[in-house]
Design a protein that fits this description.
The complex is a heterodimer of chains A (about 525) and B (about 270). Chain A has about 525 residues and is mainly alpha-helical. Chain A contains 25 helices and seven strands. In chain A, the strands form three sheets. Chain A has a two-stranded antiparallel ribbon with strand order 1-2. In chain A, a hairpin with a 4-residue loop joins β4 and β5. Chain B is globular, with a radius of gyration of 22 Å. Chain B is built from 13 helices and four strands. Residues about 25 of chain B have low confidence and may be disordered. Classes of the chains: A mainly alpha (about 525), B mainly alpha (about 270). At the A-B interface, α2, β1, β2, α3 and β3 of A face α7, α13 and β4 of B. β3 of chain A pairs antiparallel with β4 (about 265) of chain B, so a sheet runs across the interface.
Chain lengths: ~525, ~270
């Protein structure tokens, strides 16, 4: 009995002693790093204007995934103070002092690192000064590095999120969230904390949070435009195309994203398609046959469990041929970027390149027409008029007169719009004696008892007169009107000029012509 | 007899002089300002000032780095400037010396700039808590110290009160917006090069570039600060005096002005 008590006492004392050791292991800080980094408010502004913080929050660290790992297991090169930046680089493929429970070997991320290195994100990844795979310098990475380091996506967050910690304490009757304060057993630490709990907490990211992580880089079009992609076969580096740069934007327009945006969980996140089976470190380029988004693999990707299972049926291949990053879904303001490069990626641009010039031509025509709209019924032929005049009318075209007519009419019209005064293009047409030089105000002075237009019209009429060659079309003029509106008819005389070679149909016309001199038969103002 | 004293002009004059002498500090302004207004920078100081003005570059603060930190820290904006010196040097004024900048900025949360950098040799100053730069000594000094490894380092020093120098009961440090210093600030911000050089030389003439060594306060023997008078209990005072970091920094050679010397972290635990 006495022997039994002795044995029990020895065992108890051994357990007590070993528990003390475990406690130290958990919060050991063997290198004294928290002597400094445990102080609050260790901050400075570096030469780049960035606030750098050297304080590491102890509670978060000890409640985190790496809470069991001594600092120097990762920061192996730090031995002196002040530390050099490159000494702080971490090689995530190194092994650490925590055992992997299934193999009982030192834990390492080496396998994941190898996967990542071969992935679309890991190609050529070696930012910084060393050959090793490491976290990268945050400042260098910000500037021009293309491939993300581990910590672009990973941070040493606590197992229990800050917003859930109080709830955890209440629901699970815990006084603390620093696991190792109580769970000091090595078995618990290595098998539950380091293995099971990690996997439980690893799935707590919502689809929206996953997308936000991807968007942190991919939604920044300015950043993405700088990326060069290496061809997996030829190893040639090429600038990314517009479709790739705006992959996040086009995804946002898809039903997948809009479902998530609306709060439904049925939508697919980036990783649901690009990293099926949770292979987040194995994301490949679409062109890679191993990629889940390779055309040959899309039936399986779209038809994965919980998604479009019927997509695997040959008749439902619409699911696999639908472009989920269609740039034609983008807003037009984004598409203006197409003018810089990648322009033929978009059907919008193809259509625009065809329809745009045509629209421009129509706009120009409309503008020309608007400027000359007062010439009611007149056809101002820009081309072909000479031929028409020569063959059909039988008169010689007057080149000078033609030019003068077309462009002087436009110029006079523009001048009249801005000056609000009657244009007098006829004043330049000396060879055309049919043009009366009666000033417009004189028309107002004339009595017009029978004028069908209000008194304010004559000025407008005078303005419109040079352009209203449409009236050149023979009209049976009313003698009364001709005699009662001598000025108007006088203005209208040039319109009759083309008809000058014809029989005068108005009794008033010869009288006006007599006042202005003989008409020039060869002139054709309408031409 | 009493009546005679009142009517005696000599007595009245003497009383006026005595009153003036007694009330001198109250209208003369903070001691630093007095020294600033009377400053006659030496040629050496002006040359140093010119060099510094030539090398000066305004740093534009950036909110965050693109890559988030791996180890979490308190995500808060850069604190606001509250002291006169911070008008130019910013709220985190120590940025050049690799070895000490973060530690010094931490101290600036609870120690006024003038406590370390304004140490006139001809005068003995008193160090007290102060809740506002240039203001009177704080009455409530209890609970100002926080020491020990059990402290949650996610909680910042409040920055509400600072240990500041006092001269004859009046603050030796000026207020951030003291009208007497505004002309100097204007000259620095908008003046011509020569004016900037002179303004800078005058402002810094009463000051010392280098603050006191760690062991001036963190020492077993009594140093610059009377921690007990500042409200520290015995345990806190002991923790401050025997802190591990000042002892670690004691491993540096005394005159390492270039800030290039590195020491083994292993010495931290010795």
């Amino acid at each position: 009995m006495l022997a039994f008590v002795r044995v029990a006492l020895v065992i108890s004392l051994s357990l007590l002693a070993s528990s003390t050791v475990w406690a130290k292991e958990r919060h050991s800080d063997p290198d004294g790093c928290f002597s400094c980094h445990g102080l609050p408010d260790l901050e400075f502004v570096d030469k780049n204007g960035v606030l750098r913080v050297a304080t590491i929050l102890q509670k978060d660290y000890y409640g985190s995934l790496h809470g069991s790992v001594p600092c120097k297991d990762c920061h192996r090169k730090i031995e002196q103070y002040p530390h050099k930046p490159e000494e702080g680089y971490v090689d995530c493929s190194e092994s650490c002092h925590v055992n992997e429970p299934s193999k009982d070997k030192a834990f390492t991320h080496k396998e994941v690192v190898e996967e990542f290195r071969k992935s679309a994100h890991g190609a050529g990844h070696a930012p910084g000064a060393t050959k090793d795979f490491h976290g990268g310098n945050r400042l260098e990475e910000e500037k021009d590095k293309q491939n993300p380091s581990c910590r672009r996506c990973h941070s040493n967050t606590p197992y229990i999120r800050a917003e859930n910690q109080e709830k955890f304490k209440e629901e699970f009757h815990h006084a603390d969230v620093e696991c190792g304060n109580c769970h000091q057993g090595e078995t618990w630490r290595n098998q539950f904390s380091g293995h099971i709990l990690r996997r439980l907490s690893g799935s707590h990211f919502s689809k929206a949070e996953i997308n936000a992580m991807c968007d942190d880089c991919h939604a920044d079009a300015a950043l993405m435009e700088k990326v060069d992609r290496e061809d997996p076969y030829t190893k040639e580096k090429k600038r990314v195309d517009y479709r790739w740069v705006h992959a996040s934007d086009s995804y946002d327009k898809s039903l997948h994203a809009r479902l998530l945006e609306a709060g439904a969980t049925d939508g697919a996140s980036c990783l649901d398609c690009h990293a099926i089976g949770g292979n987040r470190h194995k994301i490949k380029r679409d062109e890679d046959p191993a990629a889940s988004t390779h055309p040959d693999n899309l039936p399986g990707t779209c038809g994965q469990a919980g998604c479009h299972g019927y997509a695997k049926k040959p008749l439902n291949d619409g699911f696999v041929t639908t472009d989920m990053h269609n740039v034609d879904w983008l807003r037009f303001d984004r598409l203006l970027l197409l003018l810089r490069e990648h322009r033929f990626d978009s059907n919008w641009f193809k259509a625009f390149s065809l329809l745009g010039p045509m629209a421009g031509l129509f706009l120009l025509g409309a503008l020309t027409w608007m400027l000359g709209r007062e010439r009611k019924g007149t056809i101002v032929a820009l081309i072909g008029a000479d031929r028409f005049q020569r063959i059909v009318i039988g008169s010689k075209p007057n080149k000078a007169g033609k030019k003068q007519t077309v462009f002087s009419l436009l110029a006079a019209r523009i001048k009249a719009i801005f000056a609000k005064t009657p244009p007098l293009p006829e004043t330049k047409t000396e060879p055309r004696p049919a043009v009366p030089k009666t000033p417009a105000p004189a028309a107002n002075a004339e009595p017009k008892p029978a004028s069908p237009k209000p008194a304010t019209q004559p000025a407008g009429d005078a303005q419109a007169a040079p352009a209203s060659e449409a009236d050149a079309k023979p009209k049976p003029p009313t003698p009364t009107l001709a005699t009662e509106q001598p000025n108007k008819d006088a203005q209208a005389a040039p319109r009759s000029a083309p008809d000058a070679g014809q029989e005068p149909k108005s009794s008033a016309l010869p009288r006006q012509e007599a006042q202005s001199g003989p008409p020039a038969k060869d002139e054709n103002p309408a031409s | 007899m009493q009546l005679e004293l009142r009517e005696n002009p000599i007595v009245l004059l003497s009383a006026a002089v005595l009153l003036t002498f007694l009330s001198w500090p109250s209208w003369a302004g903070p001691l630093y300002l007095q020294r600033l207004l009377a400053a006659q920078p030496t040629a050496e100081q002006i040359a140093e000032s010119e060099k510094r003005v030539r090398e000066h570059k305004d740093v534009e603060y950036r909110e965050k780095m693109r890559v988030p930190p791996f180890h979490l820290h308190v995500d808060r904006p850069i604190p606001e400037a509250v002291a006169f010196c911070q008008n130019c040097h910013g709220p985190l004024p120590h940025s050049k010396k690799l070895r000490t900048r973060a530690f010094m900025n931490m101290h600036s949360r609870f120690i006024a700039c003038e406590t370390c950098h304004f140490r006139p040799k001809d005068t003995k100053l008193e160090y007290l808590w102060q809740t506002e730069p240039g203001g009177p000594p704080a009455k409530d000094i209890a609970g100002r110290f926080r020491t020990g490894s059990e402290q949650d380092n996610a909680v910042s020093f409040s920055g509400e009160a600072h240990i500041a120098p006092f001269f004859q009961g009046q603050a030796a440090n000026p207020a951030q917006k003291d009208p007497a210093v505004q002309p100097y600030l204007e000259r620095w911000k908008q003046g011509a090069f020569e004016d900037k050089v002179m303004a800078r030389a005058q402002i810094h003439a009463p000051l010392e570039l280098k603050g006191p060594a760690c062991d001036q306060c963190h020492a077993e023997s009594k140093g610059m600060l009377d921690f007990a008078a500042l409200g520290a209990d015995e345990k806190q005072e002991q923790a401050i005096r025997t802190h591990i970091i000042p002892r670690f920094f004691g491993h540096y050679a005394e005159k390492d002005e270039k800030d290039e010397e590195r020491i083994r972290i292993l010495d931290l635990t010795r």
